[in-house]
Amino acid sequence: MEESDVHIDVSGNMEPPKEDTKLGGFNMSSFTSFSARIPSLWELLRLTRQNVRPWSEFLQTANFKTVASVPRLTNRIIRNLGYFQSNYLFVFLGLIVYCLLTSPLILIVLGGVFYACYKIKQANTPVAFFSRQLNTNQQCIAVNVASIPLLYLAGAGAVMFWVLGASFFVISLHAAFYNIDAIVTEDTETFLTETV
Q1: Local structure of 24: helix, strand or coil
Q2: Model-level pTM?
Q3: Rounded distance between C-alpha atoms, residue 74 and residue 127, angstroms
Q4: Buried (b) or exposed (e) across 60-72, using 16+ Cβ within 10 A?
Q5: How many CA atoms lie within 13 A of 190 on its CB side?
Q6: Which of 131-140, 169-178, 184-193 has the weakest average pLDDT?
Q7: Alpha helices in 60-185 (DSSP H)
Q8: How far apart are CA 62 and CA 47, in angstroms?
């Protein structure tokens, strides 16, 4: 019996196994890529402002009608929320501005917080706090956290719940009674909501 030499090629590049981000620790690279996709507040407001439906159409009283059945009511609410979502956001923001203007203590606290953060950003100097250097962003976060008890004393909790309740009430009333079928058919609605 003849013995032959068997040659097995074991050369190549080996890569370590990838870490399982679902079960493993926190993956910072996925977090930074996620935060890079989040638009800024001004970008979000600009995009929302571009999608606002005409206010004359939004407030047209001839289109307010009751609905015959509960399934049709659910369908109407969903379609109105999708069609008028930017208008509803501006209704919510309008109620926030109304509450701020009618609650001067909250306005004073928020003005002080914005002024302190502006001065911190303008100075751009790190501060030592318990043997730790705080950069300007961390200092602004500390000012915001320190303002929470002042906002609570000024009644911001009650204002927040009032804004949420009033927004929910106004938006649900509009979405339930506004007859969207008078202005948009289901065929044109899918055409209008498509992104190009």
Answers
A1: coil
A2: 0.64
A3: 55
A4: eeeeeeebeeeee
A5: 2
A6: 184-193
A7: 70-83, 85-102, 104-123, 136-146, 148-154, 156-177
A8: 29
